[in-house]
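FORM 7B: Structural annotation worksheet

SECTION A. Query
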Amino acid sequence: MTLSVLGLDAARGQLGVASATHGVAVGARVPWARSGVGVAVTQAMTRRALGRGSIDELTAGATPQAVL
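SECTION B. Predicted structure
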């Protein structure tokens, strides 16, 4: 089982992401972040392209709803 949390401090405009699981090196597969853009997570049978693609879409101006 993998647990992930995305956090927003609206007063400071800061985002964070964290994940915990039994798998080794989860930090290389699940959480995604780009400064000034946003954060995302991919879980279960993770495909790195989904995380990278989500952040790239946000960078290009897509809304979070459109990325989902």
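SECTION C. Observations
The longest strand covers residues 3-9. The mean pLDDT is 88.

SECTION D. Sign-off
Analyst initials: ____
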